[in-house]
Amino acid sequence: MTGPRAYDEVSDLSLPDALNRYQQLNDRDSMARAIATLQARGEWNDDRSLNPADYPPLTVAGHLELIALGERLARHYRHPAQVHHAILAGATWSQIAAAAGGGPDQARQAYAGWAEQQHRLRLDFPGGTIGLGDDEYAAAVKAAGEPATDAPAEDTRRLAAIRSLLSRFEWEHDDRQFALEAIERIVDGGQA
């Protein structure tokens, strides 16, 4: 590895690979800290079967990779689809909130946002099976306890502007940061 690994780099790892790499780094970090603590206390003796040189402390890059891998794993295990499955199975918002360590309103709002994204995904790929169809979306909105509404005209305009920008964007040649900044301007109500 030539430098710190960011979330975008580790998000492509398979779940087992991400988990294994996380465990390797975490184990090495834990062992290095334990050895350093024992040495600092004067309780380390060199006749142990462990060689401290085999467990060097993590570098900045190693710690950043550990953070990125942790986020990769967390996003997998706390995926909003799990809430959807719990709702379909009959869980209450209080039960979901207790399981997630938050409040019912927070869980409900996050679920409603996820359902809206999934519905837009289906609208972007008509005839497909990804995302939530109209009936599934209506059921999800009802389960979230929020009324289903059509997107306001301004949101529709912004979405059209973003789609137009992305349709002209050449991923191999154009500056991605420029595109992100243009999208932010559109979202904030301005033009690209």
Commentary on this structure:
The chain is mostly helical and 192 residues long. The chain folds into three domains: 7-77; 80-144, no CATH class; 153-187, no CATH class. The protein contains nine helices and no strands. Helix 4 packs across helix 6 and helix 8 runs antiparallel to helix 9. Mean pLDDT is 85; it is low at 147-151.
Number of strands: 0
**Rg to the nearest angstrom?**
23 Å
The number of domains: 3
Beta-strand content bin: under 5%
Largest sheet descriptor: none
Mean pLDDT: 85
Question: How is the secondary structure organized here?
Answer:
Elements: H1 7-10, H2 15-41, H3 60-77, H4 80-89, H5 93-100, H6 104-124, H7 134-144, H8 153-168, H9 176-187
Summarize the structure.
Helices cover 66% and strands 0% of the residues. The protein contains nine helices and no strands.
Question: Any key phrases for this structure?
Answer:
about 190 residues, mainly alpha, about 65% helix, extended
